[in-house]
Amino acid sequence: MATDLRHRLAQWRAGEIDTAELEAEIIACYSRAGGADFCWDSNRRYRAGRPEAVLATGKSTAQLAAICEELCGRGEPFLLTRVTAEQAHETVRQFPQLVWHERAKILQHKQLPPKRLERPIAIVTAGSSDIPVAEEAAVTLEFLGYAPQRYYDRGVAGLHRLLAVQDELARAAVCIVVAGMEGALPSVVGGLVPGTVIAVPTSVGYGASFGGVAALLGMLNSCADKVAVVNIDNGYGAACVADSICYGRSHADAVTGSES
Predict the structure, then answer these.
(1) Tens of pLDDT, residues 133-166
(2) How much is the pLDDT for 10?
């Protein structure tokens, strides 16, 4: 978008288009269409670096259909997150171009071009019960153009499972580490690898886990020096943070036109 706008400004300076035409195009870039329930963020991909993602929780199938009709009509990539099976089946029936990722609870429309990284993004879970949250992160990363590496069921209850992939994790630029219960795994990974660790506490556990609060507090109190923590069950947020770490500067340069 920034490149197109600079081109149109050059045309305006050269007198090839008039002020009213340029003004209309700029307004269109930031316009918001919507109704009583929705206000579309039509410029998020270019302003913030990622396409629109819509939380499906609490929305009716009729509301999701209205959202998909608008967003599919634009031809832009987008995600619907936290989609129930019932919501997914009805929405895909109306919009068969959407892809349903059942484990991740995500509906996807298109995706961004592949991004090349010298070092990959790794996703690690403590247990199999954490996989749905990890898959939300993994599918989001794939949507954003990455090829994340998955290492599931590597928790501290059997530390040899983690040590078996230590070399692979050490090559990762970012490790997204997903764990419930006491939330110890991100600290252990943080002490083994040189890359950034994004810790994702999950609501997996019982009793004193308090729906993920115990894992959250354990991760926030990590003694490893490069562990950042997102909210409970927030696989989508972890993926976006990883994208910002790996690609944020490149996107900022593309928007501003910087070559330094």
Answers:
(1) 999 999 999 999 999 999 999 999 999 999 999 9
(2) 86
Q: What span, in angstroms and rounded, lies between the C-alpha atoms of 151 and 161?
A: 10
Average pLDDT across the chain, whole number = 88
Angle, vertex CA 102, rays to CA 51 and CA 195, nearest 5? 60
- Two structure tokens written together for 199: 């810790």
pLDDT score of 177: 98
Cβ-contact 215, 179 below 8 angstroms: yes
| Rounded CA separation 157/249 (Å) | 38
Distance CA(77)–CA(91), nearest Å, equals 16
CB 188 within 8 A of CB 156: yes
36: pLDDT confidence band, cut at 50, 70 and 90? low
Can you say how many angstroms the Cα of residue 98 is from the centroid of all Cα atoms in its chain?
A: 17
Using only C-alpha atoms, the chain has a radius of gyration, in whole angstroms, of 21
Strand order in the sheet with 106-109: 53-55, 78-81, 106-109, 99-101
Mapping DSSP onto H, E and C, the string for the chain reads CHHHHHHHHHHHHCCCCCHHHHHHHHHHHHCCCECCCCECCCCHHHHHCCCCEEECCCCCHHHHHHHHHHHHHHCCCEEEECCCHHHHHHHHHHCCCCEEECCCCEEEECCCCCCCCCCCEEEEECCHHHHHHHHHHHHHHHHCCCCCEEECCCCHHHHHHHHCCHHHHHCCCEEEEEECCCCCHHHHHHCCCCCEEEEEECCCCCHHHHHHHHHHHHHHCCCCCCEEECCCCCHHHHHHHHHHHHHHHHHHHHHHCCCC
